[in-house]
């Protein structure tokens, strides 16, 4: 049971490419101390204040912890919290406030403010998350357009805003005189080969500048600001502690670098990182309220609501945000958190709507207005899109995890700046010649979702028009013109580029979301299939499958709907979301009547992807990074028992225990200094091995250190007593140190014959750190969360040491 030591300081900001850490833990060593790092002997030095009184004589016995000491009951970095203890402490706090509220008016007001503080916190989180999302949207739009030109009326205007007041015609609305491309600005004209090369060069240079600045800021100030953040947030919400991951610097740097990364044109989105940004807001604002600052379990309820607010502002989907937090992110989601998540998502969406970053007075990102309902026979191509989404999701997860593992285990991981620059250069060079990859991914998806109208000038809408058959705004299905065929080829090339470049982009040392790139892949495939079905129906309307509902001159096929369904299918295949995905998609587009096609595609993609590999992208990254996350959705069906998993095993050294009233301070200090366990069982005696309780290592160190400093009679030969009544001692004996207050008198125990499926269920549902194993009341061993994870991996024929705490 000997454990390795924890390598301190591995998360300090790096100073060179070689020092740049793997955020997910290539330079973490989690293999120590049953979820807790070993603490130095001097760790208690920072907790020297005490509420106890001095001892009057050496024969006095005193409970040194009648009032709580600073630091007792808290957790160190890379620990798992004790959910049961945290919830118990909150109940005790609430009970005390309720009892006091009957004593005075002031206490009653305090009770009311305590009850209201949760809603006030949700309000603040919604306001801050919505404001930051609006700032990110506006900045990213402006900087994306900056790669192609600048507005003479004001450099702070993006292309669209620059041309709002222009007198140009509708068809030339993108060519207003106020907006100048870089070639027009430098050469005085925008035509010709040299002007094209100059625009190409400026596009690549701006992309490289943005990505270089992003990776340098992440590397130098906040290494935790890279990536999506959702795998780590899932782990944190399950009870794990990663100090600084939701801190002030991470919030500031992630906000800035997210704008830079999106503007650089890399194949990534801002939606996933916005969940991280919102959770940072929630964590920081928790410090304003004692109830949440001092209780890790209560704080995680707030973070669940913050995650909902993050998705709400990312997609303009408040209900989808709540369901996303419930289905995909949260580990513990009581009904009270559901209501507060709903309120936070509402406030965040309202704030974003007030800012109006898209300039269209709508909350939705890709508003669609399809004129025709879908037909039952169209479920066949919708299901085909679902199959493609599942295949793409499984392919992407395997490829991306393989690349990320290679980055961790080879020299590639030592040069994050070089990697980001190379991928950015390749992306920019390939993207510029194709107008569908040159535009931002959000604009591309919006164009693909669009239903062609009479005034649309996009290549996707260059059909052969017969205006005699036009009825109002509805256009009949028409023969595709040369513009449509050109757009199809360009979209096919864009698809190939997006499919492969996203594999190498996700996981780099810049903020990178996966929602938008996945949706783009699906939307391209959906639009291609939609146009194909549309042309098939136009040229073969007399076929049996089209007769009766798609006659000649009718508007029956909507390619934009196929793009929307394809986007949902691919996003579902990658993330394995179902309910929340469908709700997000119809909130995102406003296409409420197309729920059934979205449901069919999402469910099909999940079935297909699950048949190939059970894990979604976030769970795969959690496993790759070795986070101690116990997946609640997986079933454990193996017939093993607690005695097969507990430690010590046969031929191991005996379990390290502390007796309740016979060990001295020196004995306990020797045990603590010679082992690295997170806690120790307390027994009646070494002979009987009757269990009394469980004491945490950190609490022991802090309590003994404070007693030595603040109490005159505490020496190395003082007896430590964990009972109410300690055995009588000779008058000349030193003072007894009574530490019953830090003893957990009701640790979770199972018998040695308990099936492991029950043990795993207990760990999942109660969020335990450890569980003691007994036989007829006698202590036999201990099972920690790490032991459970190792056992699950072993039962799945995986090497437990290679995937856990890597």
From TrEMBL:
<keyword id="KW-0333">Golgi apparatus</keyword>
<dbReference type="GO" id="GO:0005524">
    <property type="term" value="F:ATP binding"/>
</dbReference>
<feature type="transmembrane region" description="Helical">
    <location>
        <begin position="487"/>
        <end position="508"/>
    </location>
</feature>
<dbReference type="Pfam" id="PF00571">
    <property type="entry name" value="CBS"/>
</dbReference>
<keyword id="KW-0547">Nucleotide-binding</keyword>
<keyword id="KW-0406">Ion transport</keyword>
<keyword id="KW-1133">Transmembrane helix</keyword>
<keyword id="KW-0472">Membrane</keyword>
<dbReference type="Pfam" id="PF00654">
    <property type="entry name" value="Voltage_CLC"/>
</dbReference>
<dbReference type="GO" id="GO:0005769">
    <property type="term" value="C:early endosome"/>
</dbReference>
<dbReference type="InterPro" id="IPR001807">
    <property type="entry name" value="ClC"/>
</dbReference>
<dbReference type="InterPro" id="IPR000644">
    <property type="entry name" value="CBS_dom"/>
</dbReference>
<dbReference type="GO" id="GO:0005886">
    <property type="term" value="C:plasma membrane"/>
</dbReference>
<feature type="domain" description="CBS">
    <location>
        <begin position="646"/>
        <end position="710"/>
    </location>
</feature>
<feature type="transmembrane region" description="Helical">
    <location>
        <begin position="246"/>
        <end position="268"/>
    </location>
</feature>
<comment type="function">
    <text>Proton-coupled chloride transporter. Functions as antiport system and exchanges chloride ions against protons. Important for normal acidification of the endosome lumen. May play an important role in renal tubular function. The CLC channel family contains both chloride channels and proton-coupled anion transporters that exchange chloride or another anion for protons. The absence of conserved gating glutamate residues is typical for family members that function as channels.</text>
</comment>
<feature type="transmembrane region" description="Helical">
    <location>
        <begin position="274"/>
        <end position="290"/>
    </location>
</feature>
<feature type="transmembrane region" description="Helical">
    <location>
        <begin position="116"/>
        <end position="136"/>
    </location>
</feature>
<protein>
    <recommendedName>
        <fullName>Chloride channel protein</fullName>
    </recommendedName>
</protein>
<keyword id="KW-0050">Antiport</keyword>
<keyword id="KW-0067">ATP-binding</keyword>
<keyword id="KW-0129">CBS domain</keyword>
<keyword id="KW-0812">Transmembrane</keyword>
<keyword id="KW-1003">Cell membrane</keyword>
<comment type="subunit">
    <text>Interacts with NEDD4 and NEDD4L.</text>
</comment>
<feature type="transmembrane region" description="Helical">
    <location>
        <begin position="514"/>
        <end position="533"/>
    </location>
</feature>
<keyword id="KW-0813">Transport</keyword>
<dbReference type="GO" id="GO:0005247">
    <property type="term" value="F:voltage-gated chloride channel activity"/>
</dbReference>
<dbReference type="GO" id="GO:0000139">
    <property type="term" value="C:Golgi membrane"/>
</dbReference>
<dbReference type="GO" id="GO:0015297">
    <property type="term" value="F:antiporter activity"/>
</dbReference>
<keyword id="KW-0832">Ubl conjugation</keyword>
<dbReference type="InterPro" id="IPR046342">
    <property type="entry name" value="CBS_dom_sf"/>
</dbReference>
<dbReference type="InterPro" id="IPR002247">
    <property type="entry name" value="Cl_channel-5"/>
</dbReference>
<dbReference type="GO" id="GO:0008021">
    <property type="term" value="C:synaptic vesicle"/>
</dbReference>
<dbReference type="GO" id="GO:0010008">
    <property type="term" value="C:endosome membrane"/>
</dbReference>
<feature type="domain" description="CBS">
    <location>
        <begin position="742"/>
        <end position="801"/>
    </location>
</feature>
<keyword id="KW-0677">Repeat</keyword>
<feature type="transmembrane region" description="Helical">
    <location>
        <begin position="415"/>
        <end position="432"/>
    </location>
</feature>
<feature type="transmembrane region" description="Helical">
    <location>
        <begin position="376"/>
        <end position="395"/>
    </location>
</feature>
<keyword id="KW-0967">Endosome</keyword>
<dbReference type="InterPro" id="IPR014743">
    <property type="entry name" value="Cl-channel_core"/>
</dbReference>
<comment type="similarity">
    <text>Belongs to the chloride channel (TC 2.A.49) family. ClC-5/CLCN5 subfamily.</text>
</comment>
